[in-house]
Amino acid sequence: MKKSFVTFLLGIVVLSAAGQREILKSIESDFSNQLKPFVFTEKVYAHLDKPAYTAGETIWFKLYTIDGSSNTPSTVSKIVYAELLNSKNEPVLQGKVEVKEGSGPGSFYIPFTVETGTYRFRAYTSWMKNFDAALYYEQDLSVVNTLVSPDVSMLETKTDSSLEVGIFPEGGDLVNGLKSIVGFKVWDHTGKGVSYNSVILNSSNDTVARFSSGHFGMGQFAFQPAQGSTYRAIITAGTRTKTVELPAAVNSGLVMAVEPAGNLLKVTVNGSADQLNQHIYLLVSNGKRVKAAQYQLATANGASFLVDRETAGEGIIHLTLFNSLRQPVAERLYFSPTDKILRIVSDVTPGSTGIRSPVSVSFRSETAEAQPVNGDLSLSVYRDEPGQSTPASIAAWIWLGSELPGNIDSADYYFSNAADVMQASDNLMLVNGWRKFKMNEGPLPAKPLMTFLPEYEGHLIRGNVRIKSGLQPATGVQVFVAPVGKARSLGVGTSNTAGEFTTLVKGYYGPSSLVVQTDKNAASYQIELADPFSTSYSSRPYTAPYIKPAAASQILENGISTQVQNIYLNDLLQRSKEPVATDSTAFYGTPDSKFFLDKFTRFNTMEEVMREYVSAVNVRKITGKFHYRVNDQPRGQFFTVDPLVLLDGVPVFDVDKIATYDPLKVNKIEVMHRRYLLNNLSLAGIVSYSTYDGKMPAFTLDPSALVVDYEGLQLQREYYSPKYATAAAKENRMPDFRTQLLWTGNMKPSTGNTYNVSFYTSDLKGKFTGVVQGITKDGLAGSTTFSFEVK
Predict the structure, then answer these.
(1) In DSSP terms, which residues pair with 182 in a beta bridge?
(2) Whole-angstrom distance, CA of residue 24 vs CA of residue 731
(3) What separation in angstroms does the CA of 161 have from each of 235, 236, 350, 738?
(4) pLDDT tens, 337-375?
(5) Which residue, 428, 433, 526, 578, shows the most beta carbons closer than 10 Å to its own?
(6) CB 758 within 8 A of CB 358
(7) Cβ(724)–Cβ(697) under 8 Å?
């Protein structure tokens, strides 16, 4: 009997364990399904040539696209959207930058109409627009317009004593009767953390905790809230004080604490009385993937989970706790240091030099184990300015900045060998972490809607078609999108049930007029194009601009230098070009026949030209209207419908307009006399006309066509860097007031893993800094700086 009872109990235990494993498996499955849209994510990092500018200068930058899961270069998106926003989140400058193999160069010229202030450079891909704008790359920078006197409020002559305070209980909530760690951060009007001391008082004015800040205004303390009491913190930062209320503690809940234990992470969970004797579940995720899942029974002594750090992976680890109802109730972030860092060793010669003199710099890229490796590098050399801030390096952004939505002071500190870096990292995770879910509000949230496609072939143009009479969506309408004068680019899309269409337009660079039209019943439809740039913005506040009086003289000198360069070197500074590898052929490739009309006797009408010279095209007049019939040479017979007719790359659906067009404006005619497949269209050949200027002169488009000015992919501006290799060049009286001595967005190794770069100084003296950023194809990211002085 006793044996049977023991067997019965063992059976219950086994069944219970099996049941808990099934529940854990179910939670893990649901959690993974929620992360599926995030399985492929992208990050963007921008290396800007310097942190501060004056109006009239050019912002040079290189964009790196990163796979969010592997932290290696992403080759999926081929377009990155870059913007310069003012403090009202209004775009001042925008550009679509082409990237290849995970990187691409770009630039913005800052016009003299830009006001002095703090601006935000941000960059993202089309795919990233499906997610929170807080995950875009963002970098604040200052712009000073020396032609306009700054607002008095921008002068740093006043004292702003305000303090901002953030309070972050570990895991999410304070629970009465349970001891918790609380993260603290205090910062001033500049957004930077400040040092402080603090005391925690209860509602009876008894002191329950004291603590001081660590690095960057962050700190933590432990305390146990009691039911019926409230708590406040009194913060003292120098002569400034501030009192804030702590978050109210709840009576029911779970609290978690995370600490390293050798090669493990120990997660301790305690719960209120109503949470005891129930199973709780821990999911460990990293890189948008579940790495581990465990369950424990919550008892009066708590519950402990041990997580293998190697299994959890490097970087930011998410530890999410679920209660017995499968609800996410607490989450904690933990930063596990990475050794996937690219070491870049530099040697600059000489350490100090004179004006218009040569400078040589040598770089060596290698792994953390000093093994040689080549990377995709960019380099900037600029003059130091007073009060310049240092943006996060590419490694710090990939592993920290891109994962956390808040400000991170001195992000590269967390990759240093400082003695207290682990404590500082733990504070950072406490105060800058965010929770994926709204805790205690039921099961996991709905999946995000994937509205924007990744642009893995080129720029996608989106829009919608509506029926004019009632403005309801028009379904199944063919829409043709063509830049004027760029026959290599033609997009065709079909509207869906919502009237929306998407089409790919390849090889479209620089500004142009974009013609958008339908092939049938054009007068019945109204077409609109969607803004390709994101209209979502992060909630991160802008730092109020402050101009240090000590920097006034150098700012004025920079302004004069910029004006001089714009006056004397404007043509050199504004030169731009399409990428060297751009294919200039039309979208249909090599034509079957080509006619340069200057080689023939000229006729007065295009009808005569076609009848006399273009034998592959039969010109007919049916019920008073012209029609073309192209000879389908592979089949040896003429098509029975009109071909696609193009004028300077723009479709023309009324052949009458082409047949009566002035042939003296046309340079050449190209014909595809075979069937051509374009997206879902089967074309009865193609007849393409090109004018001399490529701008459809004296041609009247269908009045129903939408014609808009539309910027294609950004042209590549050529960087100007003079050389003073001869005495005559050095003695040239043309002023050289460059504060930016060198920018290269595509460094090539000279031999092996060694990069050699040389350039010349300008007429300006001072300390100059060089910054190198880069990443390898395997995801080793790193940077280095060097400096020299011009006397």
Answers:
(1) 169, 221
(2) 77
(3) 13, 12, 45, 38
(4) 888 899 999 888 878 899 999 999 999 999 988 899 999
(5) 428
(6) yes
(7) no
